[in-house]
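User
New here, help please:
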Amino acid sequence: MYMLGLGIILALLKYLEIGPVAGWSWWAVLVPFGLTLLWWAWADSTGYTKRKAMEKIEKRKQDRIDKNKDAMGMRPRKPR
């Protein structure tokens, strides 16, 4: 996401002709968009995106279980 944000900022600076970016080639300004596309393709093809989503769901589930156990007066289990 950082590369996408950088690409948007650079494209705006180039389009509005602000600062040293105004003198750069459009190819140099658009490189972050290509790198973002490569990152997304790699993350989806290797399962990185799905794995991170599952980890987030599992953490939320465990936090909810721990909160409920704490509310009932039971101590949550510590990870082994």
In short: The first helix runs from residue 2 to 15.
